[in-house]
Design goal:
about 170 residues; lipoprotein; mainly beta; about 15% helix; Nitrilase/cyanide hydratase and apolipoprotein N-acyltransferase
């Protein structure tokens, strides 16, 4: 099984980054990417360093893909670059809250439509453990969206696994 995961605190050169990664079924690290835009409302700049490289494309099972972290979803150019490099799937790993669930859904659909790619997005569920957001919860609603913006599969607000069949040839239509 291939693993598309994220994100983890990753200390390098005295800085801490929010890093997502992809691992092949043989255990090979296929990709690792630091979150670029830090969330101002969470004061992430006090404890994280933003990445400075655009998302690259990697291959998983012979299909070009890329991976983007959480708040970077709000910046269309972050998804545009890997799509322009041939990515057919863009994976998002995130911790969006119930206060922003409508944004989560709208932005994911927009990124799929704008770039003509499949979007596969995983969002946390459960209580937020941050002093400025006590009482808020992670929204869940992980989903798979086709290049036309149609939601193929969507999870709810509880922990679960969703599966979906995608037709990669739709990306080139």
């Amino acid at each position: 099984m291939n693993i598309i995961a994220g994100s983890v605190s990753n200390k390098r050169n005295e800085n801490i980054y929010n890093t997502a990664f992809a691992v092949s079924k043989t255990g090979e690290l296929l990709y690792q990417k630091d979150k670029i835009h830090l969330v101002p409302m969470l004061d992430e700049h006090h404890y994280l360093t933003g990445g400075d490289e655009v998302p690259e494309v990697f291959e998983i099972n012979g299909i070009k893909a890329s991976q983007i972290i959480c708040y970077d979803l709000r910046f269309p150019e972050i998804t545009r670059y890997p799509a322009s490099q041939g990515a057919k799937i863009v994976f998002y790993v995130a911790q969006w809250t119930t206060k922003n669930i409508d944004h989560w859904k709208a932005l994911l659909k927009a990124r799929a439509i704008e770039n003509g790619v499949y979007v596969i997005a995983c969002n946390s569920v459960g209580n937020v453990n941050h002093k400025d957001h006590v009482g808020n919860t992670y929204a869940g609603h992980s989903m798979v969206i086709d290049p036309n913006g149609n939601i193929i599969e969507e999870g709810g607000d509880q922990e679960e696994t969703i599966t979906a069949e995608i037709h990669i040839q739709k990306v080139t239509e």
